[in-house]
Write a structure and sequence with these properties.
It holds the Pfam family FLYWCH. This protein has one helix at 159-163, and strands at 6-10, 16-20, 23-31, 34-39, 47-51, 54-59, 73-76, 82-86, 89-97, 100-105, 113-117, 120-125, 135-138, 144-147. It is an all-beta fold and 170 residues long. The chain has two domains: 6-59, N-terminal domain of TfIIb; 73-163, N-terminal domain of TfIIb, CATH 2.20.25. The two termini are 33 Å apart.
């Protein structure tokens, strides 16, 4: 297991929760200083264990999208049009009405969409029918720069998707 990004937060009722890679966990129990954390989403089997506020084990088996929104990464498409990465997936601009923009997945047949208002994600149906893609950034000279998906955009157990080449890349 590689390093995971996590932070401890207080709930509205004053309890301690932990956010790991965008997923929120509640404390289930503590035995001999070892704390078991369970995902806040019902029927999800993901768990984490910590000792002295350090996550020592993370079973990343979620059956849902992250509960905490991941900030989008704005970039350009192959043809220079606007695109964003949300959760390791590339979406292209579909349409804009006033300040609200609808983004759709770049893959044909995938129905995932995300809505932004002034660059902030306000609604997302991030249920894709394919694995995440590798990041392809385009700079001012339109030269392709390839790299792995940033760690905060991919779940740890999806490292196989990072090694794949993005199909239909320019």
């Amino acid at each position: 297991m590689g390093p995971v990004q996590y932070e401890y937060v207080k709930t509205t009722r004053g309890h301690t929760a932990i956010i790991i890679d965008g997923y929120k966990f509640s404390k289930q129990n503590t035995v001999n200083g070892k704390t078991r954390w369970v995902c806040r989403k019902p029927a999800c089997t993901a768990v984490a264990f910590s000792i002295d506020d350090v996550v020592i084990k993370y079973k990343d088996e979620h059956n849902h999208s992250p509960l905490v929104p991941v900030p989008p990464v704005f970039t350009s498409s192959c043809r220079g049009g606007p695109a964003i990465f949300v959760g390791g997936y590339r979406l292209v601009k579909h349409r804009t009405m006033s300040s609200k923009t609808r983004w759709r997945c770049w893959r044909p047949g995938c129905s995932a969409v995300t809505f932004t208002i002034d660059g902030v994600v306000v609604k997302s149906n991030n249920h894709h029918n394919h694995p995440p893609t590798t990041t392809v950034f385009y700079n001012v000279e339109n030269r392709v720069e390839r790299g792995p998906v940033p760690v905060n955009l991919l779940r740890i157990n999806r490292s196989v998707a990072v090694a794949r080449k993005a199909p239909n890349a320019c």
